[in-house]
Amino acid sequence: MSIQARKLNIIQYLSQTTNVSVLDLIERIIKKEDADFWNKLTSSEKKEILAGIDELDRGDKVDYHKFMSKHR
């Protein structure tokens, strides 16, 4: 089934349902998907993430298994 057909089936189902729980769930999913976590971060958290990305871009990284072996 194509994505367009799936969308139409969902739209048809939603237009006919009287189940408020289903509608509440769909609304929560849509709101959650629309929320951008980046906007909820503090400036300090954003700086830390960007610094980590810069380190990775420079090749400054540690092998996962080596890191874990030191901390076990």
Structural category is mainly alpha
| Overall form | elongated
Radius of gyration (Å): 22 Å
Q: Give the N-terminus to C-terminus distance in angstroms.
A: 48 Å
Beta-strand portion reads under 5%
Q: How helix-rich are the residues, as a percent range?
A: over 70%
The number of distinct structural domains comes to 2
Query: Unreliable runs, pLDDT <50, ≥5 residues?
Result: none
Q: Give the quaternary arrangement of the chains.
A: single chain
Q: Helical segment tally?
A: 4
The profile of the biggest β sheet is: none
Question: What's the overall average pLDDT, rounded?
Answer: 89
Number of strands: 0
What is the N-to-C succession of helices and strands?
HHHH
Description:
The protein has helices spanning about 5-15, 20-35, 45-55, 65-70. The chain is mostly helical. The protein has 2 domains: about 1-35, no CATH class; about 35-70, no CATH class.
What's the arrangement of secondary structure elements?
Layout: H1 3-16, H2 20-34, H3 43-57, H4 64-70
Task: Please supply descriptive tags for the structure shown above.
single chain; 72 residues; mainly alpha
Short note summarizing the structure:
This protein is mainly alpha-helical and 72 residues long.
